[in-house]
Amino acid sequence: MHGEQCAFCRHFDRNRADGRRCAAYPDGIPEALTMGQADHRLPYAGDQGLRFDPAPDLPASLRKLFARRPPLTPAE
User: Fold this and answer.
1) 35 and 67 Cβ atoms separated by less than 8 Å
2) Please, are residues 75 and 37 in contact by the beta-carbon 8 Å criterion?
């Protein structure tokens, strides 16, 4: 589920056609995050202090899933 974090994050820019931008990475989300190789609930280089934060309209079942899942090992 880590690869899907971006799509469920409040910081994700859903209005961009390329789907790879957010408040943390306005110039493009690193591939390690979009491919699920890093967990953005943890700090990641260049994220400006912004981390994965579930979107307000995210169903409770998905919120619980993200909360229960242990983070991957710390990112770069």
Assistant:
1) no
2) no
pLDDT score, position 3: 62
Instruction: Work out the widest C-alpha separation in the chain, in whole angstroms.
Output: 31
22 contact partners, CB below 8 Å, separation of at least 6: 6, 9, 11, 12, 13, 29, 50
- The residues, ordered by sequence, that sit 6+ positions from 4 with a Cβ below 8 Å of its Cβ are 36
Identify the pLDDT of residue 66.
81
Half-sphere exposure of 59 (CA within 13 A, CB side): 3
Between 68 and 25, the higher pLDDT residue:
25
Residues 7-35 have pLDDT tens digits of: 899 999 988 777 689 999 999 999 999 88
Separation between Cα atoms, residue 26 and residue 7, nearest integer Å: 15
